Every structure is written in structure tokens, then in C-alpha cells.
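Q: Make up one entry.
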Amino acid sequence: MKKKWQIIIGSLLVVVLIAAAVFGIVSSQHKTTKPQRQTHPKDITVSKFIKQIAPAAQREQKKYHIPASITIAQAGIESNWGRSKLAYKYNNLFGIKANSKHNRVRMYTTENINGKNKQVKQYFQVYNSWAASIKAHTLLIVNGTADNHKRFRSVQKAKNYREAAYALQKNGYATDPDYASKLIYAIQKFNLDKYD
């Protein structure tokens, strides 16, 4: 009788161990992993940068009618063509400020205040990829700002990249008074309108 109980208990123990092992394997396969944040070389060339982000800019243009050339030029100018620390390490191509305490980094930025460039420390949003940064930029243009949801609608209605560039400047996208001219120059210099 004692031997019979030992066999039963031993068998139950084996079943429990097998179940625990199977459950452990199954549950580890169902764990959600946080997406890894992409990083990029800080010495990327302008042409490689453009080739890397152009497909995402074109996808957003198809959905929301924001010229891909404008998105690429903005990303290039705002991020020093992918070579700013905010861009290559934190995937923020447009200098988009953080709107929560999560996924952010505090860094210096240059702002034009009353005609003078000043260094200001601010919190910026951190993204997992450059494509995610481009998507966030698109949504900012589409949805506007908290104080004016229609602020950048004229960018979507623009007939060409020139109109879009001036619409961004007119509606206060950047503090730089020459922002539209810089966008147009970059588009022409690198033939970015071929992506529109």
C-alpha cells in the first residue's frame, strides 16, 4: 500500500513539473516585449538620410496630402540631416516637444526669441524609429495644436511645396523667420520634390 502511494505521489509530482515547464514555456512566448528603439550612425550622409526616410514621408503624403518633400526637408533641417543627438539617439527628427512625462529626454535647443537665438533646455519626445517620428509630425500637421486644431490645415491644401513651406512659417511652425526659405532651398538643392 505504501509503495502504491509513493508511485501515485511520484506520478503527480512528474505531472506537476511537466505542467509547470509547459506553462513556463507558453507564458514566456506570450510576454509582450517593448519595441527596441532604433539608433542610427551620427555621421550619416545626407543622401543616405534622405533615402532612409523618404518611404515613410511618401506613405504619409498618400494618406494626408502633406508633400513628402516638405516632410523630408523639415526632418533634414530640424535634425541636421539625422546627425543631431535628438535624431540619431532618440529618433526625434522634428524637435517635437514632449507632452507627457513618459518617453522624453531633456536637451538644449536653439530658439529665436525677439530676433535673437537663445539656448533653451526643454523636454523632447523620444520615438522608437524615424518612421514613428514622421508619423507624429504628420499628426501634428493634421491635428494642429491644442490652442488651434486647424493651425496647419493650409499645409495639406497647398498646391505645391512652396505654398506648403510658406503655410508652415505663416502659422508659426518654427521660430526661425527664414524657415520657409530654408525649406525651399533644401528641397531644390537635394531635388526632394521628386518624392512628391
Notes: The mean pLDDT is 87.
